[in-house]
Write a structure and sequence with these properties.
transcription regulation; five-stranded antiparallel beta sheet; 12 helices; about 45% helix; alpha+beta; 5 strands; Beta-Lactamase; Arc Repressor Mutant, subunit A; elongated
Length: about 260
């Protein structure tokens, strides 16, 4: 008996690089009536203030080219209701901007989301399924299939296929994730130098500035400068808060 998921895994194994695998995923989604897809990944999903962090990787298929710029540089990612639901969900869900009250969007949509809603309605991308992918280290990805100009009952029909769509998303993510380079896996929200991170890490271990200076063979004033700059970049009030925020962004464990 032919297993479409085994065939999909085989096709991903044979594909050369991320772009070819995205094409394979798009083809797999087409079997369920989707016309477009989005995949994004971020090593840390939320800033310390609770805002969504712009992903370090965002890939689109059969979607207006300006969407990537709006979401990554125009601030739309932070006000995307689908991403907000996904970041706080462990299960795939159907969403609809044509009938939001009957989908997962109904409980989160607010006036601040209006620019995203208007854009998706203007581009006729009003219905889809999103698969949240939460990794053990805190990394976060979403795999989304979208239907341009969906029929009235398209969203309802999708619910019986949620498990299959989720499996496609997880198989795809499992195939591409090992090839991510250090830049993609690095949290871009806060940029600290290697010395600033090292000084914070040693401070977190209980060392004083004097002890760190001795350990790194630097002047105490230099260590204090590194720590002061790190505090400023993290928007912290003091070294304790800076350590907490650096840990939140996974800077102290070498993960980012």
């Amino acid at each position: 008996m032919h297993d479409p998921f085994v065939a999909f895994e085989t096709e991903l194994d044979r594909a050369h690089g991320l772009e070819d695998r995205l094409d394979a995923a798009q083809a797999a989604l087409a079997a369920y009536g989707f016309t477009s897809m989005i995949y994004d990944y971020t090593p840390v999903p939320f800033a310390h203030d609770g805002e969504l962090i712009t992903p370090s990787l965002l890939k689109l298929r059969n979607i207006e080219a300006n969407m990537a710029d709006l979401w990554c540089r125009g601030g739309y990612y932070q006000i995307d209701p689908v991403q907000l639901v996904a970041a706080k969900s462990a299960t795939p869900f159907v969403w609809s901007y044509a009938q939001p009250e009957g989908s997962a969007l109904g409980r989160v949509m607010a006036p601040r989301h209006a620019p995203v809603v208007s854009y998706l309605k203007d581009t006729r991308m009003t219905c889809g399924v999103t698969v949240p992918i939460h990794l053990s280290g805190g990394d976060f990805a979403t795999f989304t299939g979208i239907r341009i100009d969906p029929e009235g009952d398209f969203g309802a029909a999708l619910r019986q296929h949620l498990a299959a769509i989720s499996l496609i998303g997880h198989i795809f993510h499992g195939a591409v994730y090992p090839d991510f380079d250090p830049r993609i896996r690095t949290c871009q929200h806060v940029k600290l130098t290697a010395k600033e991170i090292e000084c914070l890490r040693l401070t977190a271990q209980g060392l004083t500035a004097k002890q760190i200076a001795h350990k790194l063979d630097r002047a105490v004033g230099t260590i204090n400068l590194h720590l002061t700059l790190a505090i400023k970049k993290l928007g912290a009030k003091n070294r304790v808060q800076a350590i907490a925020r650096a840990a939140h962004y996974r800077l102290l464990d070498g993960a980012c």
